[in-house]
Amino acid sequence: QVQLVESGGGLVQPGGTLRLSCAVSGTISSMYVMGWYRQAPGKSRELVATITSGGLTNYADFVEGRFTIDSDNRKLTVELQMGDLKPEDTAVYYCYAQIGTIITQYLDIWGQGTLVTVAS
Fold it and tell me: 94-105 burial, b for 16+ CB within 10 Å, e for fewer?
């Protein structure tokens, strides 16, 4: 069974930096897209950033140049480097991947989520 393992969440002060990491656990045939979504209390899950296996990136408008997403197709990992964090960035951040397996050509999988709290 393929899973996404997340790490890097925690408490950070406003204006600080944090790096989230995610790794694929298990055997896959193909990797198409990896990325990060987030969900704050009382709000819907929203896109933060994605990156394709070809290196094409997409960022939400609220990122405003503060975050950078990067991936390693060999290690099957993705990172989200976050800077100038704001209290409104507080949310549970979920790793996402679109993969292919031996029985499924396209499969969307999600991590359990890691909590990011921006507060003093």
Answer: bbbbbbebeeee
Q: Burial letters for 60-92: b for 16+ Cβ neighbours within 10 Å, e otherwise? A: eeebeeebbbebeeeebbbbbebeebeeebbbb
Q: Which residues contact 99 (CB under 8 A, 6 or more apart)?
A: 2, 24, 28, 29, 30, 31, 32, 106, 107, 109
Would you write out the chain's pLDDT as a tens digit for each of its 120 residues?
899 999 999 999 999 999 999 999 999 999 999 999 999 999 999 999 999 999 999 999 999 999 999 999 889 999 999 999 999 999 999 999 999 999 999 999 999 999 999 999
User: What's at 86, amino acid-wise?
Assistant: K
